[in-house]
């Protein structure tokens, strides 16, 4: 499955089967998480067979069921942390989709089980991503029109249109889609709106845009996840 196909097929899933992640899939996902950690400086961790985080009232309020595996998205406290968590967390999400797994980003409807993962001094848990074999494949979310989230003084080149379309398929907190792409020549800037977890969303949509547009077609200004 190519990344664009993974973007199109991946939807948030909140109900999971009582199945352990296959060893080969688990190992490949774990290796990819470590690769992302090395690139980003994050401390993401795959937590397996731990039902307590999603066994509370908060999780039931968020309509989660059967979640026993999740990715703890952790990193050093900094101004760029949330955006890096979104960017690299979404890399892991799409990798999981390619491996036949389902996922769901969650920021508040879970309980923090301190014994399940390691938070080093100076680090914080940003959010978690439920992962496993879903009871369904989820459903698509309502998306805005491209013109509502992007602008340019000149007609949009094809690569820009494709990047915006891919970004609109990205998961965002409460489906806010509060972001704006601005095109000047072949340089693209991305701005976050006001709302919950919009900086995390910025990282997620940035990765989607790169996949849709093709990284060789444009430059970011400024670089936000470095």
Automatic annotation (TrEMBL):
Xref: SUPFAM superfamilies: FMN-dependent nitroreductase-like
Keyword set includes Flavoprotein: yes
Every Putative nitroreductase TM1586 domain range: 2-213
Pfam families xrefs: TM1586_NiRdase
Keyword check for Flavoprotein: yes
Database matches in InterPro entries: Nitroreductase-like, TM1586_NiRdase
Key words, A-Z: Flavoprotein, FMN, Oxidoreductase
Cofactor(s) recorded in Swiss-Prot or TrEMBL: FMN
Family note: Belongs to the nitroreductase family.
Alphabetized PANTHER family for the sequence: NAD(P)H NITROREDUCTASE YDGI-RELATED, NITROREDUCTASE
Record's protein name: Nitroreductase family protein
Species of origin: Enterocloster alcoholdehydrogenati
Classification lineage: Bacteria, Bacillati, Bacillota, Clostridia, Lachnospirales
């Amino acid at each position: 499955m190519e990344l664009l196909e993974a973007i199109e097929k991946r939807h948030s899933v909140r109900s999971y089967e009582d199945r352990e992640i296959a060893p080969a899939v688990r190992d490949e996902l774990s290796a990819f998480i470590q690769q992302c950690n090395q690139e980003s400086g994050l401390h993401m961790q795959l937590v397996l067979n731990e039902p307590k985080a999603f066994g509370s009232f908060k999780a039931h309020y968020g309509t989660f069921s059967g979640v026993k595996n999740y990715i703890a998205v952790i990193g050093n406290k900094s101004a760029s942390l949330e955006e890096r968590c979104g960017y690299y967390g979404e890399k892991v999400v799409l990798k999981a989709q390619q491996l036949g797994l389902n996922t769901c980003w969650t920021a508040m409807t879970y309980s923090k089980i301190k014994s399940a993962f390691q938070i080093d001094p100076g680090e914080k848990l940003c959010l978690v991503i439920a992962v496993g074999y879903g009871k369904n494949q989820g459903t698509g979310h309502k998306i805005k029109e491209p013109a509502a989230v992007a602008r340019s003084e000149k007609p949009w080149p094809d690569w820009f249109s494709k990047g915006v379309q891919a970004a609109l398929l990205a998961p965002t907190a409460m489906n806010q889609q509060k972001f704006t792409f601005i095109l000047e020549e072949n340089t693209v800037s991305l701005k976050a709106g006001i709302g919950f977890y919009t900086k995390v969303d910025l990282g997620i949509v940035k990765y989607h845009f790169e996949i849709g547009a093709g990284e060789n077609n444009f430059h970011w200004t400024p670089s936000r996840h470095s």
